[in-house]
Amino acid sequence: MQLSPLEIIRRDSLQKLRELGINPYPAEEFKTTATIQEITSGFDAFEGKEVILAGRMMSRRIMGKASFAELKDASGRMQLYVNRDEISSEEDPTMYNTVFKKLLDIGDIIGVRGEVFKTKVGEISVNIKELTVLSKSLRPLPVVKTDADGKVHDAFSDNEQRYRRRYVDLIVNDHVKETFIKRTKITNSMRNFFNDRGYLEVETPILQPIPGGAAARPFITHHNALDMPLYLRIANELYLKRLIVGGFDAVYEFSKDFRNEGMDRTHNPEFTVMELYVAYKDYNWMMDMTEELLEKIAVDTNGTSEVQIGENNVSFKAPYPRVPILEAIKIHTGYDVAGLEETELRVICRKIGIEVDETMGIGKMIDELFGEKCEHLYIQPTFITDYPKEMSPLTKEHRTNPALTERFELMVNGKELANAYSELNDPIDQRERFEDQLKLTEKGDDEAMFIDQDFIRALEYGMPPTSGIGIGIDRLVMFMTNNSSIQDVLFFPQMKPEKKAPSVELNEDEKIVLKILETTSPILLNELKTQSGLSNKKWDKTLKGLTKHNLAKVNNTDEGLFVEIV
Predict the structure, then answer these.
(1) What are phi and psi of 445, to 5 degrees?
(2) Peptide bond before 522: cis, by omega within 30 degrees of 0?
(3) What is the CA angle 23-25-29, rounded to 5?
(4) What are the residues facing 57 on neighbouring strands?
(5) Helix axis angle, 325-333 to 362-373, nearest 10°
(6) Hey, which of 132, 303, 440, 509 has its CA 20 to 30 A from 23?
(7) How many angstroms from the chain centroid is the CA of residue 366?
(8) What is 473-534 written as a DSSP string?
(9) What is the rounded CA–CA span in Å between residue 439 and residue 436?
(10) Helix or strand or coil: residue 198?
(11) At 98, phi and psi to the nearest 5?
């Protein structure tokens, strides 16, 4: 295994801790008595009291016999005051002079026991009486600094590195953690809404013999024992409707779905959808319910129904406009495409710059028309309703127009957030719709639906009138947290394979200087030279070596020459 210079230095410190008889990874429980947030928010109750805390050391300022450090736990950050004579003694200053000052590093996890107090400048702190090493960090954290004006320097902001090393992102970027806390608030709010109505949360198969319930390209795998192909689910719709057939009146599931398609800022091959099916309801009822649900989620998550999404202020306050899709296309393109044949529609698409080919049927072309010319214009929550039958093979025929279906998609900030139907429960009609999808497959549409014979069999036993909805959880979280990329709301988004960085070997002098820089960066060049204790000749050679390997750089500022870690 190739190690970086800083990793080698930390492994040296690890070995020295062990030589001192200190276990850098103790097994026993470390009992804490408070969290940082409890202390900072309730200082009066903790002042002068002894507390035991545990967390990660995020910074350190060494000043002779007394030093300061910053501790971070899951609830916040707090200053520690570390005095040599408190954690060690004049006769044996090892814990302070050697362990704290030399062998501990930024990122190490420690436990402390001490007394809560307030400094002369009013900062809540803990005067440390005892320090315990709980986990030695072998890789250096990015050194992120905030100046007196609140400006952040050397932020860990490279998106590729943030997504690959989300654990580091969560440590150094506090706002990232808040996004994922809100994600849990959103799903909890949704669960509470459904559970309060008596709806049942269920689980359905991820490995499926037929990838049904949506028009998408599936991932394929193979079951060795059964010697048969299986598919990672693209949707859980057909299984949930089987449960409605079986006698449940309302079921929902937070489903991990998988689609073997493109990746971009709004699509990940693995994503989360909440699907809900309620018997004896229709899509009009579902629109009313969706308005109520989303308004509640916005308030539960952000304290208001008004949400900032990019440059737009979006209101989730009910009610939302309802616009038929063909009417939307007519408004925004000037063309009335209702009732057109496939060839006529293809001509119009090409005339207004929509790329189409012979494999695309009426449904797919209307989908392209709306997506290219209309979708981005609907910023405030808007129900786009009454889709043509060709676009909706699982949807009940419209009660007043047999060419349309009772379906809506909810548009928010120019993107689809939800898709819902009055569910098709006529098994003969459903078989015919599946067969129409099979014809599209034969024309070359690799996203057309498969025929699920068992689902048709279930419908033949009778499914009550039902309305169902699917809400994209990842996109909903993007909206509620004002993130423009799906990667920012997934803990571990899919990434391309990582390229390995070349290793660099350092001499002992370079290791000494790099160790100082890891603790204090940037630092005045002369001060760094003094701390290193190197002669002029060795100093020049060492600094040139570090800059050559791109591990340190020298900056000429109005305040003098500074050296900082890269």
Answers:
(1) -80, 105
(2) yes
(3) 105
(4) 71
(5) 50
(6) 509
(7) 32
(8) HHHHHHHHHT-S-GGGGSSS---PPPPPPPP----HHHHHHHHHHHHS-SEEHHHHHHHHT-
(9) 5
(10) coil
(11) -105, -55
What dihedral do alpha carbons 40, 41, 45, 48 form, nearest 10°?
10
**237 touches 275 (CB < 8 A):** yes
Query: What crossing angle do the helices spanning 283-302 and 174-196 adopt, rounded to 10°?
Result: 140
* φ, ψ at 138 (rounded to 5°): -100, -5
**DSSP codes joined into one string, 249-303:** SEEEEEEEEE--S--BTTB-SEEEEEEEEEET--HHHHHHHHHHHHHHHHHHHHS
Query: Distance between CA 69 and CA 65 in Å, rounded?
Result: 13
- Show the tokens assigned to 150: 């609140």
Distance CA 440, CA 434 (A): 10
Number of other residues whose CB lies within 10 A of the CB of residue 60: 19
Beta-bridge partners for 419? 409, 470
How far, in Å, CA of 516 to CA of 509, rounded? 11
Residue type, 440: L
**H or E element at residue 161:** helix 159-164
Residue type, 294: L
Among 282, 240, 291, residue whose Cα is nearest residue 405? 282
CB-facing half-sphere around the CA of 435: CA atoms within 13 A: 7
In the block, tokens 């008004």 appear at: 306
Specify the pTM: 0.83
Whole-number CA gyration radius for the chain: 31
Best CA proximity match to 114, nearest among 82, 88, 136: 82
pLDDT per residue as tens, the chain (566 positions):
678 888 999 999 999 999 999 999 999 999 999 999 999 999 999 999 999 999 999 999 998 899 999 999 999 999 999 999 999 988 899 999 999 999 999 999 999 999 999 999 999 999 999 999 999 999 999 877 666 676 766 678 889 899 999 999 999 999 999 999 999 999 999 999 999 999 999 999 999 999 888 878 899 999 999 999 999 999 999 999 999 999 999 999 999 999 999 888 889 999 999 999 999 999 999 999 999 999 999 999 999 999 999 999 999 999 999 999 999 999 999 999 998 999 999 999 999 999 998 888 888 899 999 999 999 999 999 999 999 888 888 889 999 999 899 999 999 999 999 999 999 999 999 998 888 878 777 766 666 667 889 999 999 999 999 999 999 999 999 999 999 999 999 999 998 887 765 567 788 898 888 888 877 878 889 889 898 989 988 989 999 889 888 888 898 888 888 898 87
CA distance 286 to 466: 10
Residues 6+ apart with CB under 8 A from 181: none
Quote the CA–CA distance of 105 and 107 in Å, as a whole number: 6
263, 254, 261, 205: which is closest to 231 by C-alpha? 205
User: Which residues face 228 on adjacent strands?
Assistant: 223
Q: What are the start-end ranges of the H helices in 303-446?
A: 325-333, 342-351, 362-373, 427-442
Q: In what order do the strands lie in the sheet with 207-208?
A: 207-208, 228-232, 220-223
